[in-house]
């Protein structure tokens, strides 16, 4: 691959993002309760299991043998997270930690989900 150093840097950034995001589920659990749709069962379990999965998928991205699997699992996970993003849009405005989540901010999160899905798709297709 021509841009191997750039590819590697962005791979590590992407993986590190998921590892940190997963850890945040344990450090800021209360924040996730606010954005968890009320119709989902066992919100505490879902918050912790999604954190564990984000950490595992982030680690799996770092290894060539598991990168493709990790990328597909991330895509599926991000799709599964869509109800939380839609719930945020419906709930806005609200306070999330110390941040006021306005309808604009809630809507602005959706393109980021598409971006993160595309980023994972890149690693799924490239398998480098």
UniProtKB/TrEMBL annotation:
It is a multi-pass membrane protein. The keyword Iron does not apply. The chain crosses the membrane at residues 12-33, 45-63, 70-89, 104-124. GO terms for cellular component: membrane. One of its GO terms (biological process) is methylamine metabolic process. It is found in: Membrane. Keywords: Membrane, Transmembrane, Transmembrane helix. Residues 8-91 form the Methylamine utilisation protein MauE domain. Its main location: membrane. This is DoxX family protein.
């Amino acid at each position: 691959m021509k841009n191997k150093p750039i590819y590697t840097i962005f791979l590590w950034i992407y993986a590190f993002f998921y590892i940190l995001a997963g850890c945040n589920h344990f450090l800021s659990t209360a924040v996730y309760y606010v954005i968890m749709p009320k119709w989902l069962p066992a919100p505490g379990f879902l918050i912790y299991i999604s954190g564990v999965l984000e950490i595992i998928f982030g680690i799996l991205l770092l290894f060539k043998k598991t990168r493709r699997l990790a990328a597909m699992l991330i895509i599926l996970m991000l799709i599964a997270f869509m109800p939380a993003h839609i719930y945020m849009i419906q709930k806005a405005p609200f306070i999330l930690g110390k941040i006021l989540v306005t309808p604009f901010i809630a809507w602005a999160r959706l393109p980021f989900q598409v971006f993160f899905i595309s980023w994972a798709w890149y690693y799924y297709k490239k398998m480098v």
